[in-house]
Amino acid sequence: MPLMVNRHEEIAFELAEASSVMCIGALDTGKTTMARRLIETALAQNRSVGYVDSDIGNSSLGPPACVSLRVFRRSADLPRQFDSVSEPDALHFVGGISPERLVLQQVTATAALVEQARSEADMVVMDTSPMIAGVVGETLKYHKMELCRPEAVVALQRGGELEPVIGMIRRFFGGNVHTAPVEPEVRPSSPDERMGRRAERIMAAFAPPLDKWRVRTTVFAPTLPSGLDPSRLDGLLVGVHDTDGRCQGLGRLEVDDGNLKVLTNRGEGMQGLRLGSLRLDLGRGDVRPVNLRELMFGL
Ligand SMILES: Nc1ncnc2c1ncn2[C@@H]1O[C@H](COP(=O)(O)OP(=O)(O)OP(=O)(O)O)[C@@H](O)[C@H]1O
Ligand SMILES: [Mg+2]
Known about the structure:
Strand content: 25-35%
Distance between the termini: 61 Å
Strand order of the largest sheet: 4-3-2-5-1-6-7
Largest sheet: 7 strands, mixed
CATH architecture of the largest domain: 3-Layer(aba) Sandwich
Low-confidence stretches: none
CATH superfamily of the largest domain: P-loop containing nucleotide triphosphate hydrolases
Structural class: alpha/beta
Order of helices and strands: HEHEEEHEHEHEHEEEEEEEH
Number of strands: 14
CATH class of the largest domain: Alpha Beta
Bound molecules: adenosine-5'-triphosphate, magnesium ion
Number of helices: 7
Shape: globular
Number of domains: 2
């Protein structure tokens, strides 16, 4: 083993031959930087790597409200910043930016992309949302572990904040967990910076050329209740799916003269639309959560 300067490099080297690694940690703990290190180290050993980003709120790859996959085959493919990767290789729509009510959607999207990554690359590296504690955080991590079965977990923590979730992973999954403290150089981002980054990603997903397509009320999942006033859907985020059921990108529902339309740059070959739980303000690149059940049934 070459001389290592810190624990993070050491972990990346130890896991360079692993088949799959999940990075977990709270907000601003260096998860994405660790994921990059793992990818770099594996690529340097001529292994291809599928990077699955399941941080739906502050994704490093692809648009928010989605889980994304990008496969890197050689060191030259890896950009200095994931942000500069314009297109993920595959996308799964989750529909929201907070896992609170979306554990099922987030876990199935992640598991599907991990499976795809496994078939296309020698190694899978998973970046995750900062939700690591409490009932939602632990439930999310439990089911991600259950379906994705990473060979190893890298847990980056301040003090002992991850101990409960690490304990759970070890107890229920016999997990091979590598822990490390957060590096002192990690720079926390302010809420404004996060919102700014999210806005940029939303704008990138709605980059021109945008078209407005008239849509039938039967193309949605979940199905619209009959007699629903379409204006209730104005501004809603949707996932645009093609004839193979794959998510091609995002759209925004708009209502013109009572006609339902979708604004998107991914309309070619569109077959179905999945309703998200966010209302999208494209002027500000901002999203607000909505309760779909309330919106559809007024409950
Ligand atoms: N070892 C390091 N040296 C210098 N800067 C670092 C290091 N690790 C992380 N950073 C910086 O700290 C910031 C946060 O790191 P990173 O994005 O990896 O954390 P994260 O846990 O993925 O954050 P988030 O919760 O937003 O996803 C970034 O600006 C990153 O460039
Ligand atoms: Mg990150």
